[in-house]
Amino acid sequence: MLNVAVPPLDDIDMRRALAMSINRTDLLDTYGAGIAAPATGPFQPGSLWYGATDYPSYDTAAAKELVDRCTATNGSPPAVSLTTIVGPAYSIVIDIVQANWQKIGVNCQVNQVEFAQFLTNVVAGDYQAATFEQFGATDPDQNYIWWSTDTYAPPGKISLDMARNRDAALQAALNDGRANTQIEARVAAYQEVARRLAADLPYLWTGKAYWTAIAAEGVVGLTNQKLPDGATGIGFANSTFLVHELGLTG
Questions:
Q1: Phi/psi zone of residue 135: left (φ > 0), alpha (ψ -120 to 50 degrees), beta?
Q2: Residue 130: which domain range?
Q3: pLDDT of 44 over the 80 cut
Q4: Residue at 240 is within a domain
């Protein structure tokens, strides 16, 4: 996640260079346990909401050209601070991304902070780039608060639009997705949301996060729980699941 309200990340060419320089395959080979697939947007192939976008492809030569242009304009190489939370797994991620960015001429400093401070910093806009796992909503409208200009506030103030991306076309698509009741119209709206995010680049997508519930043999009720109205519940939602029907078989 990038703070697009602060330099040098307020420059779309810089954001595009950073996106093109991340080798997602190498990153996921190291961090993804051999099961994670590279991502280029909030919706994955196979999802109802998925549609093709123009998210930048991996291209270090083109990325370096953009950085060189920025360096020539500003008189010095761009510098970006990349933050994550404390933990060895996260350290692997930022080390790989740091190496990718430095390869194209970006001076990248990395640091780790405790989760409470990390969250305070991103909500207040006191960061440049930060690792994040988000947008696992069961319906795209649940992500409205993270992408909407309605929840924007400048750095120094609390903002649920933590990337601080303001795009009228993105907002219009979010409104369309929220207002329509026809599924075809909603799909079209959220495919446009994904296209706008690929154009704005407030997020540099790496891979889909996988969540797993593991139980001993004989445990039942992990999925397909019944809701109060008798409908079948969703097995996982944002990495959580219901436990009220867990039990053991003989």
A1: left
A2: 12-200
A3: yes
A4: yes
